Amino acid sequence: MVAASYSTKWLKVSEPSPYVWHVELSRTPVNAFSSEYWREYGKLFETLAEQPSDIRAVVVSSSIPKLFTAGLDLAAAAGLGEAATDSSQDAARASLAMRKVLLEFQQAIGTPERCPFPVIVAVHGLVVGLGVDLISACDIRYAASNTTFSIKEVDIGLAPDVGTLAYLPKITGNQSLVRELTYTGRNFSVAEADKLGLVSRVVEGGRDEVVTAALNLAKVIASKSPVAVSGAKHLITHSRDHTVAENLLYTGAWNGAALMTEDIVNNLKAMKAKQSPKFAPLKVTSKL
């Protein structure tokens, strides 16, 4: 299969149904993210965003039965700490080098947000530290009822810096709870995650049940116009980062072009004939 050819050392890629791809985090024993691992993750999504296959939705999950991820690999965390406190280097130059690494880290973990297709993450078991950064950059978050979360960075000695603090205040309206969970580093249940608005659905069970639910959702999304879904994703993100007036103006310009799609005609014909519509791939092969 084409999808499987994109698998890497710690990431399993498959296409369980047409237009739906599944990316499984598979670094045993606990999916801890080393520098090589998070770079591999970002590179995969950059590749999927640009490759010619007709991908309309992606599900991210863990292949490890007991957990999603334990967060940042301790060796990687220690390496960052040693680099930050290295007195043999000029402080300004060391800071610039550290900033470069952190920005690269942020870019890698945030890559799903920049993909043209929706990314649904299905979590179970432990979701620790970097795991919260990772899921926050995905479009939709489903959690198994056995999931436990932790914004753990404070217990290492730093503020979260890969995405949690950028995303969570915008994902949720409960600033008080965001601050409590960040300042304490305590574990919080899937019920609190639901209350916070971090997840949109709690699925009774564990890994298998939540992954099945996420894949079923992905199938529904994949049946819709890829022009409409990709455009909606882009415009929702724009709305988050701009005023209402700015987003309305931008949406007018965007849909001024997007409304010329044949997907609208195909949808109307299919509805009239009581059939399922068929859509062309979002991407076209350049003739240049």
From TrEMBL:
Keywords on record:
Fatty acid metabolism, Isomerase, Lipid metabolism
Please give the family membership noted in the entry.
Answer: Belongs to the enoyl-CoA hydratase/isomerase family.
Q: What GO terms in the biological process aspect are recorded for it?
A: fatty acid metabolic process
Q: Which domain of life is it from?
A: Eukaryota
Per the record, its GO cellular-component terms are: mitochondrion
GO terms assigned for molecular function = delta(3,5)-delta(2,4)-dienoyl-CoA isomerase activity
Q: Which organism is it from?
A: Collybia nuda
Protein name listed in UniProt: Delta2-dienoyl-CoA-isomerase
InterPro entries this protein is in?
A: ClpP/crotonase-like_dom_sf (IPR029045), Ech1-like (IPR045002), Enoyl-CoA_hydra/iso (IPR001753), Enoyl-CoA_hydra_C (IPR014748)
Recorded metabolic or biological pathway in which this protein acts: Lipid metabolism; fatty acid beta-oxidation
